[in-house]
Design a protein that fits this description.
CATH superfamily of the largest domain: Translation initiation factor eif-2b, domain 2
Strand content: 15-25%
Number of helices: 10
Number of domains: 2
Shape: globular
Order of helices and strands: EEEHHHHHEHEHEHEEEHEEHEEE
Helix content: 25-40%
Distance between the termini: 32 Å
Radius of gyration: 20 Å
CATH class of the largest domain: Alpha Beta
Largest sheet: 7 strands, mixed
Structural class: alpha/beta
Number of strands: 14
CATH topology of the largest domain: Rossmann fold
Strand order of the largest sheet: 6-5-4-7-10-13-14
């Protein structure tokens, strides 16, 4: 079964698996401040769009945890709202982050400052539990796409490590495996931070699922062989028209999949659908530090580095969307806003 990688620490702190240390070290951290949670999200100790939302919701509770019983309600509310702003500023692309914190702000305002910690704790737990349930429904919706003997190619990590449950893109794989189907996975290495080789391969092999790692520039050649059943990837934001932002390199895989007739699917919960963003060009794309590229391999010191964390895959390249509302076409995505 997938690893349990986030939860509550004693005295309502937050406990999580530090993903920056995988696969060589499996270390859990306990944090007790909003700043520590924000740092964990910013530097990718906690990552994956759904998990970022869960972690941020948990982090917001820490702002109220430290307030004394006699703290003025209005000031307590303002403290929590400021904490939510700090957390939301950490990653601009994943819409789940803003979605979860909007819920935490609503829960905080509803209390008027009285019983604030208890209300935030209940809302954070609700977000976490809903994410687990959504992952299970995604797994069930995608199960028909993973028959016995299937070979699934994925990019980045959209498994249990990226969510509060069993994952999005990997949820159908886990469901198929649990039913005794023989399923194998090809994991793109996912440069420059190697989430595929460090995280996806670690997670799947620990679950007993045969996994092959390939470098990102091998995906098209592998798809050309004709033995890949389908491509399933996650998403950090789905625009209203069906364009999808996901880890950099996803667009290249989608183009190669179309060229070789391999169906390309996106798996995501309804919290990833953003009807307020009309299309892919309107999605803010996070750019990260040049050192992330330089430390993977030598690069000329005077050469500039361009390091976008995500790219946008047009809806025309996507066969379907595996969601907690079922397997949807582009025209059916509006159901996720209901």
């Amino acid at each position: 079964m997938p690893v349990t990688h986030i939860g509550w620490a004693p005295e309502h702190g937050v406990r999580f698996l530090d993903q920056t240390l995988l696969p060589t070290e499996e270390r859990y951290r306990e944090v007790y401040s909003v700043e520590e949670v924000a740092e964990a999200i910013r530097v990718l100790r906690v990552r994956g769009a759904p998990l970022i939302g869960v972690a941020a919701a948990m982090g917001a509770t820490l702002a109220a945890r430290s307030l004394s019983a006699g703290f003025p309600p209005a000031a307590a509310l303002e403290t929590v709202l400021t904490a939510c702003d700090v957390l939301e500023a950490t990653r601009p692309t994943a819409v789940n982050l803003a979605w979860a914190l909007a819920r935490m702000r609503t829960a905080a305002r509803r209390t008027g400052g009285e019983g604030l910690h208890a209300a935030l704790l209940a809302e954070a737990n609700a977000i976490w539990e809903e994410d687990q349930a959504m992952c299970e429904r995604i797994g069930a919706a995608g199960l028909p796409l993973v028959p016995d003997g299937a070979l699934v190619l994925t990019h980045c990590n959209a498994g249990a490590l990226a969510t509060g449950g069993i994952g999005t893109a990997l949820a159908p794989v886990y469901h198929a495996h649990a039913l005794g189907r023989h399923v194998r996975v090809i994991a793109d290495e996912t440069r420059p931070l190697l989430q595929g080789s460090r995280l996806t391969a670690w997670e799947l092999t620990n679950a007993g699922i045969p996994t092959t790692v390939i470098a990102d520039n091998m995906a098209a050649s592998r798809l050309r062989l004709g033995d890949v059943t389908c491509v399933i990837v996650g998403a950090d934001r789905i625009a209203r028209n069906g364009d999808v932002a996901n880890k950099i390199g996803t667009y290249s895989v989608a183009l190669a999949a179309r060229e070789h007739g391999v169906p390309f699917y996106v798996a995501a919960p309804r919290s990833t659908y953003d009807p307020m963003t009309p299309d892919g060009p309107a999605i803010p794309i996070e750019e990260r530090a040049s050192d992330e590229v330089r430390r993977v391999g030598p690069a000329a010191q005077r050469a500039a580095i361009w390091n976008p964390a995500f790219d946008v895959t047009p809806a025309a390249l996507i066969r379907g969307y595996i969601t907690d509302a079922g397997l949807l076409s582009r025209d059916q995505l509006g159901r996720l806003a209901d």
